[in-house]
Amino acid sequence: MDPDIMKTLWILFVLLNLDKGYCTKTHDQVLSITPKTQEQVDIVKNVSTQFETVLWQPVSPHFIKEENQVHLFVPANSSTSVKGLLEKNTITYEVLLTKADELMAMQTRDNSTDPRSSSSFYERYHSLEDIYDWINRTIQDSPNTANLILIGSSYEKRPLYALKLSLNNRPNKKAMWIDCGIHAREWIAPAFCLWFVRHALLHYGKNQDITNILDNMDVYILPVMNPDGYLYTWTTDRMWRKNRSISNSSICVGADLNRNFDANWCTVGASHDPCSEIYCGEFPESEPESQAVADFLRSHKDSVQLYFSIHSYSQMLLFPYSCTLDEAENHKDLLEMAKEAVEKIQRYYRNNYKYGAGARTIYLAPGGSDDWAYNLGIKYSFTFELQDRGQYGFLLPPFRISKACNEALTAVKSIALRVIEKTQVARSSV
């Protein structure tokens, strides 16, 4: 046979069999690892720090324990070494995500052609530029109900825009605060803030719960608390968690904004090491993002009664304290509210969420925004960890956005209605 024909047939054969396993490509993966002994714990800690990997769960090697699942993002170039070491030491693992790189590529496709009013727009992840554009469009489309507030700017001088939803001018009206995207890689969080605003504006006057809430409360929403980090996850490193501030003492970049508030700052559960994922910053509110939120809440502490910080992943509804094992003064109220919200999610969406005080439900995490807000006097303070439990983790696919946001919406409305009820009872008894 002619050599050129042979060559052409061979190329066709290779192309046709690319998807049949004859040609294999190594992918970024996420592993679930379960160390059984202290020796295995130490090996897994080393794997998470010595190799080019990213620890998803727990957030720091310090929290890795026997019999507890560890979720580890393993780039393609580390895959053989990491798996080989685990197998050599008979450490149990399974692959949670086989092609994480393909999932990431799919999530960052440009969807900017979607009209802002369409529901499909809210079932996509959006770049920072797109979210800023959405904020401007929202206040243009709803000038009487949505106001723009510039609460500060990030380390790299990007604006921190909050929206204020106010549906009537009742005197002495109370308020609720929701911030999203304090950790850059948790993309479902900003998606929820957009979802909440759309639901509120679309369903006020039609849905009894949201109408009741907005009649009695103004709502402040900060869609992206960490814009520098969020942008960085779109352009450079999808797994980035912290902000992008430069340290005076280290080449490592960024502080964990949720360890930077003045609530038992930088005690057990945070780190003074700028290279750590839970680096607390140089001092409380050293980061402009956390300082901007703290300043805003300090100036509105008489009206803001309810605080939500939206995170992912692990499906939990947490409340103070995370910075100490002590119980909050109104622990019973917070527990009842969280329990009711979680039961509603289970009833409507058949999905289970853990709930409880942060330190006892996961681990000590000082310097968190919810504890700080609680100590400021906002006695109904919650952190929401959205879907999922680890199947996709930080890479929750767009087709899951709707259910994840509706679950969180159900809980936020449930708790807000309870807070309104309690404050009305308190007012009438004065």
From TrEMBL:
Domain Peptidase M14: 124-419
GO BP, one annotated term: fibrinolysis
Domain of life: Eukaryota
Active site: 385
SMART domains named in the record: Zn_pept
Protein name, entry field: Carboxypeptidase B2 (plasma)
Transmembrane segments: none
GO molecular function: metallocarboxypeptidase activity; zinc ion binding
Signal peptide: 1-23
Protein's UniProt keywords contain Hydrolase: yes
Gene3D superfamilies per the UniProt record, alphabetical: Metallocarboxypeptidase-like, Zn peptidases
Alphabetical keyword list: Carboxypeptidase, Disulfide bond, Hydrolase, Metal-binding, Metalloprotease, Protease, Signal, Zinc
Alphabetized InterPro entries for the sequence: CARBOXYPEPT_ZN_1, CARBOXYPEPT_ZN_2, CPB2, M14A-like_propep, M14A_act_pep, Peptidase_M14
Species of provenance: Mastacembelus armatus
